[in-house]
Write a structure and sequence with these properties.
By secondary structure, this protein is of the alpha+beta class. It has helices at about 10-25, 35-45, 80-85, 100-115, 155-160, 185-195, 205-225, 235-245, 275-280, 290-300, 320-335, 350-355, and strands at about 5, 55-60, 70-75, 90-95, 120-125, 135-140, 165-175, 200, 255-260, 265-275, 305-310, 340, 345, 360-374.
Length: about 375
């Protein structure tokens, strides 16, 4: 196939870049459309505070009839490179039809740009920051994605391997069966941990109270995630972006916070009712009716997505997660929650995966990050 790759330079082209996967996967049962307004914000250099530490270019591939057949972004996170000593470019926002010429043209373009910037390795799919969708799905094609996840066809991995990419790391996702009513042993264990370490778990009463805790939670997140693959410290502006992205859809009763005797936050967990089915109905648009499906999913649901969990180093392995769980349990039970689905966890992050050992759980999805020397 004759393929032409063009850089995305204007607003109209950016909209086409964002819309491409929603169009390509429109008939796929397990694809969840991205919220196009959110992607437009994330890709806007004037709005997204990630561009304080990142630079990026976007390209689309077209066939001989000028039909869009693929897309890719090239990203350099300067802060992450300075922290790690790497000269690493990232590729992300990757989607393409099953054609060797298309995928080769996209990666040749992105890799050439990275070399021109002095980079020696390329890794991905990754976003600007840790909280962007990442990875190629390699297991779980019969499952709906979580909010951090992304569906892709099975041919993605073979095409990347053909280009010389190799596995760098995997993320896994598990479904946890939530035991309601809460067994007495959980409540009793949480009480013992609270007394032993002078800790107390709670949920904010209002969104305003939750916003008041957000900055302190973000500082803890920076500390707890500092060694996580792909993570770079969040600036005040990036924290505001996260607040903008998550707070409107958060139920304060599903935000579990643990504080010490001085009311210093030492751990927290944020979860949200699954929006996968609602986003399918919304078809990537909030208006005119998409927001209605989302509101319904937030109020009545049987599945929670675990968005974030962070615990101060001093309290790791001391059962802080049980205080988080018992704090959000009343609201989760009221909504009708039966399952919790973990969002993407690094396969070697034992601290997080051990949180679910007390519950019935099974791994249902696996996504892969690849790398290549330039």
């Amino acid at each position: 196939m004759k393929v032409t790759v063009k850089e995305v330079v204007g607003r109209r082209e950016l909209k086409a870049f964002v819309h491409f996967p929603n169009k390509m996967y429109r008939k796929e049962k397990y694809y969840v459309p991205t919220l196009e307004s959110g992607d437009l914000y994330a890709l806007d250099r004037k709005k997204n505070h990630a561009f304080e530490v990142c630079e990026a270019k976007y390209w689309m591939a077209y066939d001989e009839k000028s039909k869009a057949v693929g897309r890719i972004a090239g990203i350099i996170n300067r802060q992450y490179n300075e922290k790690t000593g790497l000269k690493q470019a990232r590729f992300g926002f990757l989607d393409f039809i099953d054609d060797t010429d298309v995928v080769k043209a996209l990666f040749d373009t992105a890799e050439s740009w990275a070399r021109g910037k002095g980079m020696t390795t390329v890794s991905g799919p990754l976003g600007f920051l840790e909280f962007d969708a990442a990875g190629v799905l390699v297991m779980g094609y019969d499952q709906l994605p979580t909010c951090y996840g992304k569906y892709n066809y099975p041919y993605y991995e073979p095409r990347l391997l053909e280009l010389g990419y190799v596995k760098e790391t995997d993320w896994i996702e598990s479904i946890v069966t939530v035991p309601f009513p809460i067994p007495e042993r959980y409540s009793r264990g949480a009480k013992l941990i609270s007394e032993r370490y002078n800790l107390h778990g709670f949920t904010p009463r209002t969104k305003e109270e939750m916003v008041g805790h957000f900055s302190e939670m973000a500082r803890l997140l920076n500390k707890a995630y500092r060694d996580i693959h792909g993570f770079s410290e969040l600036s005040d502006g990036q924290i505001e972006d996260l607040k903008r992205q998550f707070v409107p859809n958060l139920n304060p009763g599903l935000v579990g916070i643990v504080a010490d005797e001085n009311d210093k936050i030492v751990g927290f967990g944020i979860s949200i009712p699954s929006l996968a089915k609602a986003m399918q109905k919304a078809r990537g648009k909030l208006f005119p009716f998409g927001f209605i499906h989302i509101l319904r999913a937030l109020r009545h649901n049987d599945t929670l997505d675990s968005l974030l969990i962070a615990v101060d180093d001093e309290y790791k392995g001391k059962g802080v997660n049980s205080l988080i769980f018992t704090a959000i349990a009343p609201t989760a039970e009221k909504i009708g929650i039966k399952y919790l689905e973990t969002t993407r966890e690094l396969e070697d992050n034992d601290d997080v995966q051990n949180l679910w050992n007390s519950f019935e759980h099974r791994t249902v999805k696996r996504a892969r990050c690849y790398c290549k020397d330039l």
